[in-house]
Design a protein that fits this description.
The protein is an alpha+beta fold. It folds into 2 domains: 130 residues, no CATH class; 85 residues. It has a 7-stranded mixed barrel with strand order 1-4-5-8-7-6-9. The chain is built from 7 helices and 9 strands; from the N terminus they run αβββββαββαβαβααα. A hairpin with a 3-residue loop joins strand 4 and strand 5. Helix content is 50%, strand content 24%.
Length: 255
């Protein structure tokens, strides 16, 4: 839970920055599974709970669904493999929306799914995201259904893998640093933007706004592939950014 909370803390900061910059809004669309069964390696082990779900698109696409376990998976399989799910978004007629790339299961959801498969019963929420694709409003309006495919990926930690795992953790920490770097620049862009906007320099304010949102998108992409915890130094940098954000939002409220 500690990892989830710290990661969500940084994602929440992304959201605050984007909200401080203008009227960009995410699009939320209600979708339902074309069928409750899934295809692929896990078809006999899990199924989708029939319900209406919310697909969200802003700079990235996301979807959270509930699944339930039908039967226990052989522990020998789970020891060396990890379950993977992916979502395809469809129109009402079951035609794929080409401009919306396949949504991939996030890292934490893989672990959660693996845990309940080992137990052989229960339900869980699975989160999917995609940083690719720029669907138009017309294409998003066609969005009604989704399907889920499944597979198993090699996943076995042994003595030879420990070095690789350490390298992955170090790379993730570096990705967090890079994301925070982008956020620091985004906050500076937001400060410049508000000053220009409040002085009536709307054209240049829009330019700064575009730069700010580009930085946020870059940070979001880095976050999506990072794993593990934020360090104390990284948390301190975020805290300083929040103070700057509060000043920006205070300036906005005075106008």
């Amino acid at each position: 839970m500690k990892i989830i909370l710290k990661s969500h803390y940084l994602i929440g900061l992304l959201f605050l920055i984007s909200c401080s910059g203008g009227n960009v809004r995410s699009v939320v669309i209600e979708v339902k599974p074309e069928r409750t069964s899934i295809s692929g390696s896990l078809s006999k082990y899990i199924e989708i709970i029939d319900d209406i779900y919310e697909f969200e698109h802003e700079y990235t696409s996301s979807l959270a669904i509930r699944v339930k376990v039908l039967e226990i998976m052989d522990p020998k399989i789970l020891k060396g493999m990890r379950p993977v799910l992916a979502v395809s978004m469809l129109s009402e007629n079951g035609v794929p929306i080409a401009s919306i790339q396949r949504l991939e299961i996030d890292y934490q959801s893989k672990n959660t799914l693996q845990e309940i498969l080992a137990i052989g019963e229960g339900e869980c929420i699975i989160y999917f995201t995609s940083n690719l694709g720029t669907p138009s409003k017309e294409q998003l309006k066609k969005l009604k259904l989704f399907t889920v495919t499944s597979s198993l990926e090699d996943y076995e930690v042994n003595s030879q893998d420990l070095t690789a795992e350490t390298e992955t953790e170090e790379a993730s920490s570096n990705q967090y640093d890079q994301a925070i770097d982008e956020l620091e620049i985004a906050v500076n862009d937001a400060t410049k933007m508000m000053k220009k906007y409040n002085s009536g320099d709307y054209d240049n304010a829009l330019t700064d706004y575009t730069k700010m949102m580009s930085r946020i998108q870059k940070a979001s992409i880095k976050l999506s592939s990072a794993e593990g915890e934020l360090s104390d130094d990284q948390m301190e940098r975020i805290a300083k950014l929040q103070i700057k954000l509060a000043k920006i939002q205070g300036t906005q409220l005075k106008q």
